[in-house]
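Problem: given the chain below (169 residues), write out its structure.
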Amino acid sequence: MSLESTIGSIISNKINDNSETLVQALTNLNNSVSNAAKITEIPFVFLRTNGERVSTTGTAGDIILSGPSCPAGFMGTIEDFNITFGTAGGTVDLVLLDSNNQVINFLVKTITAEQNGTGATVLQEGQRLGVRLNASGSGLIGAFCSGKIKRTNTIVPTIAEAATERVVF
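Solution.
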């Protein structure tokens, strides 16, 4: 018997002897990788006008722009915001909205010109960013606010299912 076949025979016997242990180790590794993927932060756009400008003409208190809701099973952190506002009068507020578009909190009040910044505003499941008309005027606004979302509920298997709220248990 050659050295290669002897070593191959020893390895084969060891693998057969420890196959259950090997399978368990691989299963544990797979579960660890899956769990790590579930808690990895995912880039997310919280508010954008897609390069278009939205009119600021309306009634004070109107929500003139709202972003997508933070998906079920996730929380979001807004890391930067950019508001471009050109106006002949009037002001707007950057606000935190609930799932029914009701104002929860004012993030930046009385915006009259371009605003840029960074921060760590946290959105819970179902909350969204919005632009609220503070004082009517004739102007145009553009917005782009981005950050990351992170899974808070590991039962939700994918972001697509979370976004459509069709979670399979």
